[in-house]
Amino acid sequence: LIQFVVCGTDSANNCNDWNREDQTLQKCMEWLATNGSTAHLKAKQYKPSERSEILNGFHKAIESLAVPTHLQDCHQHKASKEPAMDLNGGRIVCISAFRNDSHIKSIEDSVKELITERNELIVKQRKVDTSCRLLTISFCELVFINTFPIEDQSMTSKIMEIPRHELNGLVSSEVHSVKSGRFLAAKLSYLVLSHYSLASTTVTGIPMKEEQNASSSANYDVEIVHSSEAHTDSFKTGLISTEGVCVKTFREGFSYDTITLKWCTPRTNAVELHYCTTAHRITSVDVNSRPASCLTNFLLSGRTVMLEMPRLKGTKIMSHMLSSHCGELYIHTLGTGRSTLEDPPSISEGSGGRVTDYRINDFGEMMKRNRLVACRHHQSANKEVLFPIEKSKQSLGKQTIYWPLVIGNTILYNIQIQIQNFLHLVPKEYLTEEEVLECKKSIYHLVGMESKGTNLPVPTIGIKGKGPKREELYRMVWNEMEYFVRSYCVTPEHQSILTCLLECRSKPDPHSSSTTPSVRTTTADATDESTKTQSNGTKPNESEWAWKESYDWGRHDIIPMNDTQNSSKVMEAPLKKFKANGVESSNKSLSTASQSLLM
Q1: What is the DSSP letter of 430?
Q2: What is the C-alpha to C-alpha distance for residues 584 and 550, in angstroms, rounded to an integer?
Q3: Where are the domains positioned within the chain?
Q4: Which of 285, 318, 348, 512 has its CA at a distance of 20 to 30 angstroms from the CA of residue 450?
Q5: What distance in Å separates the CA atoms of residue 267 and residue 339, rounded to the nearest whole number?
C-alpha cells in the first residue's frame, strides 16, 4: 500500500488513504488536479526546502503509519494477544531539495524523536482507552531523494549518496542524490524494483496498427514490471546464460536491467504446450502510453500472449505467457525443460548409463512398497516416539541392507519366482509362524531343484565364453541366501529360518547346542578345512572359494541375540566386508537414491 503526502510551508496533506479504493493512479491524479501545486513550488526562484516544512510532512507520514490498514484491523479483532505485539512499520520516501549533508542529518535526528514520542503517546492512550486501534511503529525505513536542477552547481548538487544504515533499533536511513526531470523518474523506477523485489521485462515485436494509417502496422515495445520470482527458474536452470540466448539488456538512462522477450502468437501444438510453474501480477511502466494501453486491452479481452526468448541459433524457447484472470494481468512462467508429454528419457542418458542391467522393475516395486502417506505424530508421555519420517528412513534402511543394484551381481534375486515371497518376508522386523513356514518351504523347494538338477537362471550380460557350472551356481546361491538371512537375523523366527537353511546345507551350527539361541555362525568350519588342506600341501579348488573370497565376512560382523546391548544395532550396522562384484558401491548408491526419494 502507498500513501502520498504533500507538505507546504504551513501544513501537510494526504493525497489518499490506506483503503483499497484509494490505491489507484486515477485517485492520486484527481487529487493533484484539484489541489494544485504547493506554494513553495509556485515560487519563481528555486530554493532548498526549510527544515520545518519537511518536518511537517514527516509528522503527517508518521501519523499515517500508526493508523492500521484494513488487514491489520482484522488481525487485531481476531488475535487474542495485545495489539502492541503486532509488527507495524513502513518506508517513508522523502523527495525534496536539501541544503547540505548536515541538513539531512538534523532531519534524521528529528524523525527518530518523532517516532519515539508517537509510540509513547499511543501506549498511554491505550491504557486510558481500550478501544484505541492505533499501532506503535516497530520499524521505519527513511529514504531521502535529493533532487536539483540539471545545471545547478550549488551545495545541493554536492550532497553525497549514502547506502542504507541503521540509526537505531527502529529507524534506518539511506540517501540518494539525482538530477530533476527524467533522471528523477529513472531513479524512482530503480528504487521501486529494489524495494519491492520486482523485475523488468520488455515485450518486443508487438504488432500494432498505426493511428494515422490503419492499413499499415508497426512493431512496438512495452515494458512491464512484476515479481522477480518470475525469472528465478530461468536463472536456476542456466537458460538465460546459455550461449545463443540474448535476453538481458540495460535501458538507456536507467540503472537497472530488463529481460527482453519476443511477442509470439500462442499455438495449440502438443509439443509447445508447457506446464506453468508460477504466476505473478504485472503492470506496465508507462501506463498512459498507447502501446501499453493496447496490450492491456488485448489481454483483458481474454486473449493470451506467448513470450519467447530470442536466440541467435537453434529452436525458439517459450518461457513465459501473459494472460488475465478476473480483470488482473498475470505473467506465467512456463517449464522450459523436457515436455511432460514426451516419452521418459532412457536410463543410458543419465549417470552410470554404460551399465544396462539395472534392476529397474525391482526398484519400482520397492518404491511402491515404501510410499509415504500423511500421518499424525502421536507423542507418548512414557517413551520417546520417533517422527514418522525417521521411522520411514529406518524401515527403508533395514530393507536395503542387502539390495544389489545390478542383475549380474546376484543370483538370489533372479529366482524370485522359484522361492516366492522369501525375499519380501525375511527383511520384515517380525515374522509370524505362517510366514516362517512359507520361508522354510522356499528353502525346501530350492533343495528339490538342486536334487533334480534344475538349471538356475544366469544373467548373460557381461559374461564372455561359457558360464559357471550348475554345481557352482547352486553353491553361490546357497552362500548368498545364507548371507541374506544372516543380515536380518535378529529374532527367534529368523533364527529358525537360518537353522533350517544350515540343516539343508548339512552345515553344522557350532552354537546350536547352547541354551540361548545365537546367530554367531560363521565360516569358521570352512576356514579350518582350508587350513588343513593347505597344511597337507594341496591347493583348494578356486571355484569352491570364489564366493568366500568375494563375501568374506567374519564373526565380528554378526552380533549374538543374547547380547542385549548391541542387538538393536544389528539392522543398522553396515556390512563392511561385503564386496561381491561391486555390491558395496551399489548399496551406497541405493542408500543415496532411497533417501532422496524419502525427502
Answers
A1: S
A2: 11
A3: 5-180, 199-334, 402-530+538-581
A4: 512
A5: 15
CA 88/CA 86 separation, integer angstroms: 6
Render pLDDT for 134-148 as a digit per residue (tens, 0 to 9).
889 999 999 999 998
- Residue, of 379 and 539, whose pLDDT is higher: 379
Say what angle helices 492-504 and 470-487 make with each other, to 10 degrees.
160
Name 540's Cβ contacts closer than 8 Å, sequence gap at least 6.
530, 533, 534
More confident residue, 316 or 520: 316
Share of the chain above pLDDT 90, in %: 23
Could you read off the pLDDT of 507-535 as tens digits, one per residue?
A: 655 544 433 333 333 333 433 443 333 44
Residue recorded with cell 539343508: 504
Model confidence pLDDT, tens digit, residues 289-305:
889 999 999 999 988 89
Q: How far is CA 580 from CA 254, 548, 563, in A?
A: 65, 9, 29
**Cβ atoms within 10 A of the Cβ of 50, count?**
13
Whole-number Cα distances in Å, 588 to 426, 450, 552, 585: 21, 33, 18, 5
Please state at what angle helix 51-66 crosses helix 101-128, rounded to 10 degrees: 40
Q: How does residue 542 score in pLDDT terms, banded at 50, 70 and 90?
A: very low
The bridge status of strand 248-250 relative to strand 257-264 is antiparallel
Query: Angle at Cα 32 formed by Cα 27 and Cα 35, nearest 5°?
Result: 120
Rounded CA-CA distance 368/67 in Å is: 56
Please work out, in degrees rounded to the nearest 5, the angle formed at the alpha carbon of residue 504 by the alpha carbons of 499 and 506.
90
Torsional class of 382: left (φ above 0), alpha (ψ -120 to 50), beta (otherwise): alpha
Residues with Cβ < 8 Å from 225, sequence gap 6 or more?
Answer: 192, 193, 198, 199, 200, 201, 282, 283, 284, 285
Report the alpha-carbon distance of residue 258 to residue 273 in Å, rounded.
Answer: 26
Distance in angstroms (rounded) separating the CA atoms of residues 146 and 180: 9
Q: H-type helices in 214-323, by residue range?
A: 232-236, 290-300
Region of residue 170 (phi > 0: left; psi between -120 and 50: alpha; otherwise: beta): alpha
